[in-house]
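This section describes the prediction task in plain terms. A model, or a person checking by hand, is given the sequence of a single protein chain and must write out its three-dimensional structure as a string of C-alpha cells. No templates, partner chains or ligands are provided. The sample shown here is typical of the held-out split.
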Amino acid sequence: MLSRIRIADLALVEELEIEVGPGLNVLTGETGAGKSVIVESIGLLVGGRASASVVREGADHATVEGLFSDGHGEEWVVRREVWRDRTNRCYLDGAMATARSLRERAEGQVAIHGQHEDQRLLERGAQREILDAFAGATGLADRVAAAASALDTLRRERSGIAARSAERENRSQYLRSQIDEIEAAGLEPGEEETLAADARLLGHSAERARLAAEAHSALEGGDTPVGEVLGAIVRSLDRLAELDPEMGPAARRASDVRYEIEDLARDLDRYASAVDHDPERLARIEARRDLLFRLRRKHGRTAEEILDLGRSMTAEIAALEREGLRERSLDAEIAGVRKELGAAAIALADAREAGADRLEEAVWGRLAELGMGEGTFSVRLERTSDPAGVDYDGEPRACGRGGLERVVFLIAPNPGEPLRPLVEIASGGELSRTLLALEAALAEADRTPTLVFDEVDAGIGGATAHLVARQLADVARHHQVVVVTHLAAIAAAADRHLVAAKSTRDGRSVTEVRVVDGEERVREVSRLLGGDPERDVSRHHAEEMLGGIR
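The expected answer:
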C-alpha cells in the first residue's frame, strides 16, 4: 500500500507532500490544476518512464519519493530523480537501483489505469490477460508463453541446421580431401631444410669429388709431394734442435704440421672416394621438394603451418559432425517441449473455459448495477484447427504463445441487439462502464494492494455516476484505491478526499494538494455538481450526497 508521496520541482509542483490512506482516496480539482502530476508521480515510483520535460522551469532536477508498506509491518522507500541534463537516478531504500528493479519491486503492488485504459481494453491481448487474471491462470499463461517461445527457438535452430545440411556435407568432404592430401604427404617439421641441403650435395657430387681429388693430389701427388718436403724440413729442424736447443719448439711445430697435412690428405682421399653419385636419389629428393612446394602454395609457408592447418580442419569436421548430432537431438528436445506446451495449453484452456463463464456472470451483474441492466456481456474463446497443433476437445488446435485460443469480449449494450466484439462498440461511456465492471470483478480475485484510476470515469454522468461510485467503493473494500475524477458522486464516496488547486506564488503557477473535510469538502462537492458553493441549494445537495452515498 502507498502511504506517502513527496514531490519537488515536478511540472507545476514546487514542493508537496501527500498522505494516502486505505480505502477510497479521491483527488479532484479544476482542469489544469495538476491532478495528473500525482498520477505521473506514482508512475515514476513504480518504474515508469521519465522525461526531462517534467522538470519544473528553473530547477535542475525533479524528485519524487514514496513510502510503501505491505500491511504486515514491512516498509520500503522509493526515490526517483529526473534530471534535466544528466542520467536519471533511482533509489530503493537508499541504495542505487534501476527503473527495472523498481518495476519488479512494484509488481503485484501497484496497478495504474490511465485515462485511455478503455482503449487498451479493445486489444485482444489485454482481454486475454484480464480473463487469465480473473481465472487465476496467469501462471499457466506464462508457462504456455515460455514453452511456445522455447519451441519456436528450437524449431528455428533445427530449421537452420537442416538448411545447412548440404553445405555441411560438401564442406566435410572438401576438408577430408585436404586432410587426406596432407596426411598422405607425411610431412615432418624442418623437412624442407634437410631436403634442400641433400639436394645441394647430390647436385654437386662430381664437382665435390673433383675438388677433393685435386687437393689430395696437390698434397700427395707430383714429383715432390708436400709430405716428403715437410719430412725433410722436420729432419733438418730436429738436427738443428740438437745443435741449438732453442730451436726445439720450431722442430715440434714442423712435426705437427707434417702430421696434420698427412691427416688432411687421408681425409681428402676418403671424402673423394665416398662422394655419393646417385641421380635416382636426387630425382626422388627433387620430386619431394616439388610436392612440398605445391603444398606450401596451397596451404601455408612451412610444414608446421600445413600440419596446424590439418589439425584445424580435423577440429572443424568434428564441429560439423556435432552439428549433425545436434540436429538429431533437437528432434527429441522439440518433442519434449511440444509435450510440455500441450499439457500447459490444455490446462490453460480448461481454466479459461471455467473462468469465462464466471467472468461473464460477474461482469453482467456489475453492468446491470452501472445502468446497463438489459445489456449482455460474453467471453468468446476462438480456436482454429491445425493438423500439427495440440489435441483439445478431440480436434488438433493451433497453439501459440497465447495458448490455444484468442479471447474476445463481446457485448450487446441494448436489448435486441446482437453480441458484437467490444472493439466495435462506439460509445465511450459504454467502454468506460465495461472497464469499471471488469475492474470490479477482478478486484475480488486481484491481490494488487493499490489500484490507481486516472479519470477512467470519462463519459459517465447522471445516475450512472452514483452506480460507478458504489462500484469503486466496493473495490476499495479489498484494495487501496486512488481515483482522479471530476464526478461529485465519486468524490462523495471517498474515505479520503484530496483537492488539487493551482495558485500563483512569486509570479509563477504552483500546484498544491490538501485534504478536505467538513465545510471544505461540502464546497468542493458542490463545485463538482456544477452549482454555486455559496448558495444554500447547492450546499444542501452536496450535503445530501455526502451523507447518503455510502
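For orientation: The chain has 17 helices and 17 strands.
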